[in-house]
Amino acid sequence: MIEAVGLTKRYGKTLAVNNLSFSVAGGEVTGFLGPNGAGKSTTMRMILGLDNPTSGQVRIGGKLYRELKEPLRTVGALLDAKWVHPNRSARAHLQWMAKSNKIPAARVDEVLETVGLTSVAGKRAGGFSLGMSQRLGIAAALLGDPEVLLFDEPVNGLDPEGILWIRKFMHRLADDGRTVFVSSHLLSEMALTASQLVVIGKGQLISQSSTEDFVSRAAENTVKVRSPQLPALRTVLSQASAQVAEDGKALVVSGLDSEKIGEIAAANQIVLHELSPQTGSLEQAFMQITGDSVEYHTGLETEAAEVVAAGQ
Ligand SMILES: Nc1ncnc2c1ncn2[C@@H]1O[C@H](COP(=O)(O)OP(=O)(O)OP(=O)(O)O)[C@@H](O)[C@H]1O
C-alpha cells in the first residue's frame, strides 16, 4: 500500500508535483499515467526517499521511507535499468546489492531464475541488451522479496517480446498480492497492463479510478444507428431526450444506450440496419482529460487525437 497526501515538490520556480494525494493498493497493477514532464519520476523518487517533498508526505505500508528498517524488504524499484557497474557480472552485481542490504546470498540465484537470467548470470552486465538490463533491474528490485514494487517507464525502448514479458511479469507480481505501481506515458500499454490508474498532469492529480471507469467516464460513448427511416428515427429519439447528430447516412446518438434505442425504434415500427455502440479509447480519454495539462504543446497531441478519431 502506498499513500501520498498533499505531496508537493518545488525545484526553484518549477512546481514539479503539486499537492498530490492518491493511494495504491495491493493485488493489482496500478498505472501512473501522465504526459512528459507531468511529475511521475519526481513522485517516484519521493516515494523512495531519493528526493524530499517540499511539503506533504508519502507512506509505504504506513511508514515514511526513512522509517523503514530494511527498505529493500519492503519496497523494490526499477528506476534506471542501466544503473549497473558495466564490468560486473549480473550475479556479482546482485551479490554486491544483497550483501550491502543484509540479504542472504542464496536469494541472488533465486531472483536470477525468476527473471530468466540464470544462463547469462556470469556475463558482464555492461554487454546486456536493454531487455536483459531491464530483467536485471527487476531482479535487483525483487532481492528483498518486497510487498511493494515501483517501475518507472519499464517498457521504454523494449521490443514487443520484452514488453510482453514485462506485462506478464507485473501481472504475476500483482497476483501474488503485491502492490505494483508502474509509470508510463504509453496509454495503450497501460490499458493492457493496469487495472487501476492514477493520472496526473502538471504535477496535479487528474483522476484516480479503475482503467475501465477512466475510459468510459472520459471518452464519449455514442451509438451509431443506420435506418432507411432516418428522419422518423431522429424525431422519436429526440423526443426521448437523446442528443442526435447526423454522420452521412447514419445517426450518432448520445444519451441513450443501444438497448433503449432498439426498443424505441421497435415501438415506432422503424427498421434498423445498424445499431452499434462506439466506445472511446484510452487515448481519446487521455487526450480529453489531460489536454490542458500538457506542459509543452507540440501540435502532436492534436494530430494524434485526429488520427485516433479518424480510426473510429
Ligand atoms: N532535479 C530537478 N531539477 C529541476 N527541475 C526538475 C528536476 N527534476 C524534474 N524537474 C522538473 O519537474 C517537472 C516534472 O519532471 P518529471 O521528470 O518528474 O516528469 P515525468 O512525468 O517523469 O516526465 P517524463 O515522462 O518526461 O519522464 C519537469 O518540469 C522537470 O523539468
TrEMBL record:
CDD domains the record matches: ABC_BcrA_bacitracin_resist
Keywords: ATP-binding, Nucleotide-binding, Transport
SMART domains membership: AAA
UniProt domain ABC transporter: residue ranges: 2-227
GO MF, one example: ATP binding
InterPro entries assigned to the protein according to its UniProt record, in alphabetical order: AAA+_ATPase, ABC_transporter-like_ATP-bd, ABC_transporter-like_CS, P-loop_NTPase
Source domain of life: Bacteria
Record carries keyword Nucleotide-binding: yes
Nucleotide-binding listed as a keyword: yes
Family, as annotated: Belongs to the ABC transporter superfamily.
PANTHER family (UniProt xref): ABC TRANSPORTER, ATP-BINDING PROTEIN
Descriptive protein name: ABC-2 type transport system ATP-binding protein
Organism: Amycolatopsis umgeniensis
